[in-house]
């Protein structure tokens, strides 16, 4: 579906098939969480051509056929990629028919795309989301010497800024906010006079986003029809977490896109991210094209990490992604990276191994050792090199 053109409206953008106006796939109790399935378009040539023909064409009826023509061309070439957007609500009861249906869709999305978009206002209220992203602005506005006080010996924890490789990106990693008083410790270092509101919002958002990760992992167990005892496996795979607060600065030259974050796959189990409405996250499609995600307002993106890929015997896809910045607004991202404790051994359930179609792809491995291997080597194919059979 494509938004209808208004008569006499000369703006080509009105016609662009970038967002499909159908409702978000819903799960649970019939509660309404409407959004749109996001249509991702990455055929820049087709887009340019489309803009051109519409600009020069004042007749709405012809514009309509032009639009049809371009959509057909893009569909034939399979140039439109649909990343599904699901809606979870409170009534999504485990074991219900709705739950089973949603579990299947979640599993399929994680297999095909390695990511999906998620609306879950009933579980994580919109206000909370907005509040944290707003408060992050004050955090990054603190003096550099204060921000540098957040240090950690662990990779991806502590403060990182002014990295010449990714100069637009500044970030804080805070470990295990859900378990300990680390939100309080972090807040006290940043605001010695205290900032209870920031601390509480960071803690609550981290806990809720980690709960969502667990829900999704349970759906994956269901989606593969695995016995219930595997729930404890996935619970262990999210028993630790890293909450990451990121700011991407505006590129100095306004002309081009600049790299905000280098392409990578996540080395944890599952990632849930939200952002302040400034887009920039791109995922690499299976056919090797970068596609721009349009994360809906108050929505989240869920990304499969290497641990889940290994555990699922390579059936789930740990999608490569990056951030590209353009435009005049800063991007703020908040992410919760669910991961196992370092001592956990990741082992493929024997039900997911099948000699002909799905032979064993990864040997059992210790998560801490894998992480160490990656940090030492920074190999793009670290999982395969470390644990591939
Ligand atoms: O900022 C984003 O949207 C992506 C963040 C990300 O991929 C990461 O921190 O690993």
TrEMBL record:
Signal peptide: none annotated. Keywords: Iron, Metal-binding, Oxidoreductase. Pfam families: 2OG-FeII_Oxy, DIOX_N. It comes from the Eukaryota. Residues 237-340 form the Fe2OG dioxygenase domain. Belongs to the iron/ascorbate-dependent oxidoreductase family. This is 2-oxoglutarate-dependent dioxygenase DAO. It comes from Flemingia macrophylla.
